[in-house]
Amino acid sequence: MEVRASLQKVSGSSDSVATLNSEEFVLVPQHADDTSTKDDEKPQLKIVSNGDEQLEKAMEEILRDSEKGQSCLVDGQNSCEISDHSFGDVSASQKNKPSLQLILDPSSTEISTPRPSSPSGFPEEDSVLFNKLTYLGCMKVSSPRNEVEALRAMATMKSSSQYPFPVTLYVPNVPEGSVRIIDQSRNKEIASFPIYKVLFCARGHDGTTESNCFAFTESSHGAEEFQIHVFSCEIKEADSAQESVITRDIHRTFPAHDYFKDTGGDGQESLYKICKAYSVYDEDIGYCQGQSFLAAVLLLHMPEEQAFCVLVKIMYDYGLRDLYKNNFEDLHCKFYQLERLMQEQLPDLHNHFCDLNLEAHMYASQWFLTLFTAKFPLCMVFHIIDLLLCEGLNIIFHVALALLKTSKEDLLQADFEGALKFFRVQLPKRYRAEENARRLMEQACNIKVPTKKLKKYEKEYQTMRESQLQQEDPMDRYKRENRRLQEASMRLEQENDDLAHELVTSKIALRNDLDQAEDKADVLNKELLLTKQRLVETEEEKRKQEEETAQLKEVFRKQLEKAEYEIKKTTAIIAEYKQICSQLSTRLEKQQAASKEELEVVKGKMMACKHCSDIFSKEGTVKPAAISREDQGIESDDEKDSLKKQLREMELELAQTKLQLVEAKCKIQELEHQRGALMNEIQAAKNSWFSKTLNSIKTATGTQPLQPPQATQPPKEST
Questions:
Q1: Domain membership flag for residue 374
Q2: DSSP state of 622
């Protein structure tokens, strides 16, 4: 398959993530923490530099630079731009995703390859085998994807299972496979389910009786009928001799990425599990510093169980673990092949490196051992991993030659130190932009690296190594090995001293922090006691204030009812007086009209009488007296007196009526005044009692009293 076709399978885009990490890598032995050797320890891997110790030094510097405080800056040469939104979503979704976590034991777990048949007679497929499991049974469930119901089923089967028996669980690695349950005692298959019909997996919560149980639901009996199968796992968690090294490296792996930057977060926890599981799974290689970067890249794409399986696949099936074996013989073979390819395709750059004594292991060791994950941006790493899974480990040669070709002009002008710095710092920065990374991958796919030529170079290297081993003086080899061991011992002693100093400093700081915490706890306890005492006093005061408030409310309610009753009574009296005044005014008007009518009648009678017409004029005034006869004078005087008397009575009656009207109006004004004064008194009493009550309550609770509202004068009715 052509590499160009493989590039087209790579996903379209991924945001640029640039990180500054460790320089090279070093191999961590199985017992990295023990400075003393024991007789029962397993043989440890050794680093051989094939006559050149610069490889060893480069490999020992991988994470040393990280300890010097490398961090991502905003812009410039030390910038680290993180815009990987897609994988931020992936990591966020994995935080809440329930997962089935099984502890793998190399003695009880293996990855099987397709074989013609098994001893039991049924065919085996590419599956992961889980031994030391106990099958507790199965039961029907109504909600196959409900974790609560799954936990309830596990608890039920754990407590009620009467005949559990040991089984082996086969989990296929292919989507067309089947999950199979094998009875270990009879070596017989008791159940089998297509993998696509397994709907949900759940694990018992820690601290419960079913903490060592797990279960999965399946729908193999119909679309509406679901069953849950419960297992108990008795495998204890395996210990790794490299846990301290793994824990230290976890914090250095992509420290600027959102998913891995939090100490103790989900990202670091999952990465720790994968690295520890592989160190236990692969006893020959264990954990090597730099593997965490590859595991982290896989973890950004898939859950931790799948990431571990893919890591095992890359290490075993793709041959990455072979680079660590046999004193790195395969790795040095890769270096030789790369130099021969440079000699053929980049002769001028190869000659320049030869003049500088710059060998491939000085700059390309982490390219092969970490698959470019330790230093280059993630947008470029994702493309490389995709091509690696499609084409195999030889894609590293394509990418390496593409990097050397694009940087040829700069490398030809650099000296030895400048070239090393260029590979370490400047080269990864060039591909932070996604477009630059894409162009590089296209160029890498266009480079031809024939497999036959690589095999030819491999044979040349093997022949050269055999001749070197035959010509090499054993004493020189022993001296070099002794010198290397002495340097490793000195390095370990220095690390031990640093760790001891750090431990003492940490203990002193911890003691000081503990003393300060105890002092602070004492102060807080005293404050708590005082606060409790004040709380009791405040509650007592509050109770008293509530009683006083209740009493004041009762008094205020009675006064308010009394005032409302007085207002109603006054309002009724005023209404009655208004009605009386209205009646008096109507009566007065009627009397005035009647008086006018009577006066007009009298005037008409007077004008009709001859005697009266002679005495009174038409306007009703008395004419000047004239000489008349004696009888006429007497009669006119009597009539005149009579009329004057009637007139005086009418005027008196009119005056009395007006006086009554004036008295009624005065009484109305007096009642209005009394009503206004009573309203003012009620409002003042209301404001006074209410403000006093609120002030007392606010004073008891320690808050500012409310300002009483100003009493408003009720509008007076017009008189």
A1: yes
A2: B
Alpha carbons 52 and 409: distance in angstroms, whole number: 27
Count of structural domains within the chain:
3
Given a contact cutoff of 8 angstroms between Cβ atoms, the answer to whether 667 and 577 are in contact is yes
Residue with tokens 């490793």: 488
Residue recorded with tokens 């005037």 = 603
Query: What mean pLDDT is predicted for residues 516-528?
Result: 92
Mean pLDDT value of segment 204-220: 85
Angle between helices 266-281 and 304-316 (to 10 degrees): 40
CA atoms of 436 and 443, how far apart (whole Å): 11
Per-residue three-class SS string for 413-432? CCCHHHHHHHHHHHHHHCCC
CA end-to-end span of the chain: 113
Cβ(79)–Cβ(73) below 8 Å: yes
Domain final residue pick, 442, 472, 502: 472
As beta bridge partners, residue 73 has 79
Q: pLDDT value at position 398? A: 93
Task: From 242, 213, 238, select the one nearest 105 (Cα to Cα).
Answer: 238
SS (H, E, C) 662-708: HHHHHHHHHHHHHHHHHHHHHHHHHHHHHHHHHHHHHHHHCCCCCCC
- CB 202 within 8 Å of CB 147: yes
Closest CA to 273 of 313, 308, 311: 308
pLDDT of 102-159, one tens digit each? 333 333 333 333 333 333 444 456 777 888 889 998 888 888 888 888 999 999 988 8
Q: Give 562-581 pLDDT, tens digit per residue.
A: 889 989 988 888 888 888 88
Task: List 194's β-bridge partners, or say none.
Answer: 178
259 and 363 share one domain: yes
Q: Is the pLDDT of residue 262 over 90?
A: no
Residue type, 5: A
At 104, which amino acid appears?
L
Look up the domain containing 360 and give its range.
3-97+252-472
Collapsing DSSP states into helix, strand and coil, what is residue 365? helix
